[in-house]
Amino acid sequence: MKNYLLITLGHNSSAIFVDNSSDKQEIIGYEQERLSRLKADSQFPIDAINEIEHNVGYAKMLGCTILISHWFNFKSSRLCKYYTEKDEDKLNSYQPECIKFVNEGFTHHDAHAFSAHAFFKYNCPEDKLTSAPHHTLVVDGFGNNEEVLSLYMTTNKNEQPKLIHRVYGYHFSLGLFYQYATAFVGMKENQDEYKFLGYEAHIDDELTIEQIDCINHFVERGVDYFLTAWVNDTKQNEHLPVNTVIDFKALDAVRTFWYEKFKEVCDAIDLTDTTSFKARCAIAYFIQQICEIALSNFIEEFGVHNLTVVGGTFYNVKLNNKLLNTVDGLFCAMPLAGDQGAAIGMYEAELKEDAPAFKFDTLAWGKRRFYNFEKYASKEKGVHYHIIPKTALGTLSEVAKNIAQYVANGRLVDVVFSNMEFGPRALGNTTTLFLPTTANTANNNRMNHRNEVMPCAPICTEANAKLLFDDYELERVIGSDRFMICTHDYNKLYSKQYGGVMHKKTLEPHIYTGRPQIVREHTFMGMVLNIVELATDAKCLVNTSFNVHGNPIVFDTKDIIDNFNFQCEHAEDEKHRPVLFVINIV
Q1: Residue 54 phi, psi (nearest 5)
Q2: Which is it for the CA torsion 296, 297, 298, 301, positive or negative?
Q3: φ, ψ of residue 253 in degrees (nearest 5)
Q4: DSSP E strands: which ranges in 295-445?
Q5: What is the per-residue pLDDT across 297-320, written as a single tens digit (0 to 9) for each?
Q6: How far apart are CA 501 and CA 518, in angstroms?
Q7: Whether the Cβ atoms of residue 73 and residue 170 lie closer than 8 Å to each other
Q8: What pTM, to 2 d.p., does this model score?
Q9: Of 13, 102, 20, 115, nearest to 61 (Cα)?
């Protein structure tokens, strides 16, 4: 069986190595930012590739097939600041069987669609399948030659996605629309987009009914603008870009266009400070409503029954819930919605060449470096370090009890468990756990210098998920609820006991939502959750990433200790300091 090195260039650059040399497929992968420590790093993922080589060995990488995904213009040379001759020399040093790039016959959006279909196929049980077609929708900032929206269809689970509709043009990009709104209100592009969901929830606190009604008129115009472009058959109007990697002049024109529209909204409701809390709420409501209404109308226009979504736009977890409730069949959101997972789609397209299917049982693909951690382990200072051989995993139950005891007593517990997660979510391997009270969440935000506009996410067992959330929604979601990529309505009323994971639904003051990670009972996190529930009756805990705001999640000893010390220094007092558990499976 061939081994593969899967590389994504540009934004969210990453490298994944798929080792098929034994009976059991092994996957190791890193986003470049985790090693360079530059948030949203877009340089060639040389550090990620070198770390893979350090772990699997040079010999195993020899002769591999290298698949490279990117979102650049096809007309330009593939050599650019994201991929230089030096980088090409590095890849050639592995004497690869071949190096394949996305090209005119297989685009960036195709890579996204194939990766999402692979995830759906891996997670969907046979008894949930029906005879109705399954659609995959790709929406992001842009792909090759300005592709911005692509719709695919399959008639059975094992069929490869077939493109049925595609839209070109930066002006019709929902991803760019959202991105430029982020900058307009003074937040960081490609980092702070998620905060808009927090601001939107405050719309009825900050604006009058008349102001909201005024914004709704702009929303109607925006929906019509996008929908008219998307529904028309624009596939034949493919853009033929200039011979540059990216047409920055065209992007600047789109930014100017949207800035003018955002200013019109603010002027109409007399907001002069576009970076104020009130302006952020107004623009958040404006863009979120357009995203939700335009995309739900689009999939209704195409008669979509079962839907999988992928592309950076679908890190918008509230949008995913809207689409879940627009279709009446199955719904799946690819957890690696951003570009870092796109090259997996190129691997999926290779299956006809006898490559084993890509495994999605976990996203914990990044081996960490726990060098010299023993000297930092001091229970007096709140640091617990456990080295556990794979042959003695039964001892994890004792560690789970220790963590659960701290959590049950109201402490915040940082958990660094073996491999690090690939993608943007902390999924229990690089996590801060605590009881889901509003006070605990405020304490955690203070320690990590985070904006309190966003609540944290709940982690719960499968049994408790059915008590907390709408069961009809849960039943139709395929795979995604294990990866915190979709919101659900709570069955319970708001209380401060669960306030840290309850998010007020926009303009519906009595409905609250959460973005859960649902774990199986037999897992390590399942053990912790069950023990805490026995002690406190808490049906979920907070699961938030263990990292200071603006930093990637922790990779090695230095990152772990630096983040922990920062938290301790910014805790309100001694009793509010966190406890750190580092669990190294060897």
Answers
A1: -60, -35
A2: positive
A3: -65, -40
A4: 306-310, 331-333, 383-388, 413-417, 430-434
A5: 999 999 999 999 999 999 999 999
A6: 14
A7: no
A8: 0.95
A9: 20
